[in-house]
Design brief:
This protein is of the alpha+beta class. The chain is built from 12 helices and 23 strands. It has helices at about 40-45, 110-120, 120-125, 140-145, 150-195, 315-320, 325-330, 345-350, 360-400, 405-410, 425-435, 450-454; strands at about 10-15, 20, 35-40, 50-55, 55-60, 65, 70, 75, 80-85, 90-95, 95-100, 130, 135, 145-150, 205-210, 220, 235, 250-255, 270-275, 285-290, 300-305, 350-355, 445-450. The strands form 8 sheets. The chain has a 4-stranded antiparallel β-sheet with strand order 2-11-7-9, with helices on one face. A 4-stranded mixed β-sheet has the order 4-3-10-6. The chain has a 4-stranded antiparallel β-sheet with strand order 16-21-19-20, covered by helices on one side. Helix 2 packs across helix 5 (about 150-195) and helix 5 packs antiparallel against helix 9. GO terms for molecular function: DNA binding.
Length: about 450
């Protein structure tokens, strides 16, 4: 990203400041239970990610110590790329990550990390590969320019960014906890709904029924013909249409079928669709369809239910989403140890239902809708706030690398940004020291890991 910078700053390439060492390509057969942890990209992005280990001989250049600067140069844009300071124990560096070697007495490590990450948009836009996996070449990375202020100002900028971005991360972490709080709130609302607490109903007077007692016919599977790449009258729903617990329009594939308008495969307004196969967390999840008749057909991995006069569709849907019913489906699913867990027609038909009078069902649904609408509004506000916070990080970095965060500091400390303290003088020292350290022939030391040496 090109931004206007203070006159005392320079623009220089990343390659003029450091050396890049790529990680080692460890083969799966080299992984072990003990030895050095292997740093992969997921270990930089996720502190809870598991590690593979290596206990063989390892070149010193691939050995990483706490505090070293690394750059992940391959992966998925938006999640994988970026500079990181390693905060773990001694480890082995995997491929697709550069170790960044630089003169720490002349360049502030924190500043360099921020400066590199400020260029991520530019680096990713020029990355090779497809829409998914992409990679930044060493040449592209080395040729990318970064802002380069005097050393004293680098430290001040890094201090300010540490403080400001820590506040942003703290705000982001608090906001990201709210969806889980809302999820628990919705479950508590459902629990109150199916127990009668939400409207003060006496559940002891409710009917004890099974799902088969309150639907017009037995639940039955749909059909899943092979999708076609042209438009047909038959839009076959995909599981993603109902996995959220709400019906999501537009999640379908076109298929060819030979059915009439009266076929059971058509989804009607007020039908409830239950997923009969999915992961254990989602098997039995349901959604209520409210829309025009015969707009969709439903697939083999769903069952369809239509309530009779004893229940309103919204109340049955709330019951199916409640934790006791979700647990009932999980406990009765088959194939949980290998294949996709499934529930059959008998399990769905025998689903226990506590059934209040129609008037109570209507009132319960009204109150749940009211509370859920309130939760939805809060969730939307949180999502909007998260978007603003995410933009705030880039805004703060942009200000920092335009020199705005240190404008007053430069006025107060002219002696620290001029003469022998200037960016020009600093860059010359870096070039001189790097040239002096550059060996005629590079020798790579090989050492055994601690485990292999024992």
């Amino acid at each position: 990203m090109s931004v206007e910078k203070p006159t005392k700053w320079l623009q220089t390439s990343i390659g003029s400041l450091c050396n890049l060492i790529n990680g080692r390509a460890f083969k799966p057969k080299e992984w072990s239970e003990a030895g050095l942890p292997i740093i992969r990209i997921q270990n930089l992005n996720n502190p809870n990610a598991t590690y593979n280990h290596y206990d063989g001989e390892l070149a010193d250049k691939h050995r990483i110590e706490n505090g070293e600067l690394l750059f992940a140069w391959s992966g998925t844009p938006g999640t994988s790329f970026g500079a990181h300071v390693w905060k773990g124990e001694t480890a082995a560096l995997n491929q697709h990550i550069f170790k960044i070697e630089f003169i720490e007495a002349l360049i502030d490590k924190r500043f360099l990390r921020y400066a590199i990450n400020q260029t991520l948009d530019e680096l990713i836009s020029g990355a090779h590969g497809g829409v998914g996996l992409r990679h930044v070449t060493k040449g592209k990375f080395e040729a990318t320019d970064v802002a380069f202020p005097p050393l004293a100002e680098q430290k001040v900028i890094a201090d300010k960014l540490d403080t400001l971005l820590a506040q942003v991360e703290n705000t982001n972490a608090r906001l990201e906890r709210i969806p889980q709080i809302l999820k628990r709130f919705r479950q508590s609302v459902l629990a109150a709904a199916v127990s009668g607490r939400i409207n003060g109903s006496d559940i002891s007077k409710w009917d004890r029924a099974q799902l088969i007692d309150i639907v017009t016919e037995k639940p039955r599977n749909g059909r899943s013909p092979k999708g076609v790449n042209y438009e047909t009258p038959y839009r076959n729903l995909t599981l993603s249409a109902t996995t959220s617990g709400q019906f999501l329009d537009g999640n379908f594939k076109y298929v060819e079928l030979d059915i009439g308008d009266d076929s059971y495969l058509w989804v009607k307004n007020g039908d409830i669709l239950i997923q009969r196969a999915n992961t254990l967390d989602y098997v039995g999840i349901s959604a209520l369809y409210r829309g025009p008749d015969n707009a969709y057909v439903y697939p083999d991995l769903m069952m369809k239910c239509t309530t009779n006069e004893r229940a309103i569709p919204e109340f049955l849907h709330l019951t199916l989403l409640s934790e006791p019913t979700r647990k009932y489906f999980r406990d009765n699913a088959t194939g949980t140890s290998g294949n996709m867990p499934k529930i059959n027609q008998k399990t769905v038909s025998e689903t226990p239902i506590s059934l209040p009078p129609i008037a109570d069902q209507t009132e319960i649904v009204r109150r749940v809708d009211q509370l859920f609408a309130h939760a939805d509004r809060i969730e939307q506000q949180v999502n909007n706030a998260l978007a603003r916070v995410n933009n705030l990080t880039q805004s703060i970095l942009a200000k920092a690398f335009r020199g705005e965060l240190t404008e007053q500091w430069r006025k107060d400390n002219p002696e620290l940004i001029s003469g022998e303290n200037s960016a020009e003088a600093l860059l010359e020292r870096i070039k001189a020291e790097r040239a002096a350290k550059k060996p005629g022939v590079r020798r790579t030391k090989i050492r055994k890991t601690e485990q292999a040496a024992k």
